[in-house]
Amino acid sequence: MKNTTTDTVWRVLRSFLLTTWPMMLYGVLYFSFGLLPKSSAIDVRPLYELERTVFGISAVGMTGADGGATLTFAEYFSAHNWAWADIVSGVCYICWVPIPILFTLYLYFKGMHRRTLCFTLIFLLTNAIGFAIQCLHPAAAPWYVMEHGFAVLPATASNAAGLLRFDALVGAPLFEGIYSCSTNVFGAFPSLHAAKICVVCLYSALLFERERRPGMFVWSVVSVAITLGTWFAAVYTAHHYILDVLAGVCCVGVAYLVFAYGIRRLPLFRRVNGSLTDSWAELLGTRVPPTR
């Protein structure tokens, strides 16, 4: 009996570690980002001018950071904001932490262990691509340009920017505390906030389309709403340009392609994925696997 219990615990622990290790590695990368080597050339003005060229707007009585008549949307929203939008932005923007974790746990405890491994690998790839770009091409956020102009000040501390309005409304320094500890001041391009929930959105939608699982429909609807809210919040709170958001979405697309046409075909992935099961009964040893 003791050996059977030990074997069962080991099988469950092994399955959990094999399916969630990419999430754990992502956590290591995220918290060690400040130690990674980065380019000394910080993009402040070129990204601002490209954003203004592609997505610039005009507003009566307002001028851009260089005194021109064309503004970025982030500059416009810095002067035009609303309490409901601040609340929506704050709620959506904090979801990048719990939603991917909850989705991973949902897949795993629903017995979809192979699906869990695929999702966590795509999530890790998305962020690894984004981190690599941010290291090679450090870029200033809209709030930096509005506060410091086009001067390159590497020692600048991070800023919660428009999210401070959410803190004021709820009466708690939530985002102020988060951004005071941030080491990624010049990581605006691409927006990984825009990418993280998008991975959940796309993966849950693909699973629903292929398998018609009711739970995946709920996840799809919820993650679509949060994804759209996060994209809006990124620009509305002056943390990202629209170009940053689009680049973050591109990271998701590239990660899917790398996984589908690269990692998925590797012998090691096939071996590990083949050792997993999507049946709890089989994993726990209460059902004999079918003969192949």
Topology of this structure?
Elements: H1 2-31, H2 45-55, E1 57-58, E2 70-71, H3 73-79, H4 83-94, H5 98-109, H6 113-136, H7 142-148, H8 164-170, H9 174-180, H10 192-211, H11 214-236, H12 242-261, H13 267-275, H14 280-283
Antiparallel strand pairs: 1-2
Helix pairs in contact: 1-6, 4-8, 4-11, 5-6, 6-10, 6-12, 10-11, 10-12
Oligomer: single chain
Distance between the termini: 29 Å
* pLDDT averaged residue by residue: 88
The main β sheet shows up as: 2 strands, antiparallel
Structural class: mainly alpha
Task: Please count the helical segments.
Answer: 14
**What share of residues are in beta strands?**
under 5%
Radius of gyration: 22 Å
Helix content: 55-70%
Shape: elongated
Which runs of at least 5 residues are low in confidence (pLDDT < 50)? Answer: none
Order of helices and strands: HHEEHHHHHHHHHHHH
Strand ordering within the main sheet = 1-2
Number of strands: 2
